[in-house]
Design brief:
This protein is an alpha/beta fold. The protein contains six helices and five strands. 48% of the residues lie in helices and 18% in strands.
Amino acid sequence: MILVVEDDPQVARLIALVLQRNGWKCEIVADGQTALRRTKELKPSMIFADLTIKGMGGDQLCAALKSQEETKNIPYIVLSGDRDLAQKARKCGADDYMGKPFEFPDLIRLVDKYAGAESRKAD
């Protein structure tokens, strides 16, 4: 299970479609507060989150999840078109980042790197 935190419905659907076609289950949420709650409930294999989401921003969400024992080891990937993306991802404690627009193979490469085959079998 991969949690996608994205408030642009078209981008969210596109990410979900690519993940599902590669054998992954995913859930889409559009804001930081919901993402925080769902992360604790679902314990996803990884999280893809935009920096600019409603309520709590993606960087704040990342910092909050990385500061809690129960969620700190969940791989967190920041998605953004922001040109300071690498710096912002590092600052909030994200495991990696991916610029927008992105190529589908790059998305799957990150999933394979952080969520791997073991979690896919568990779904």
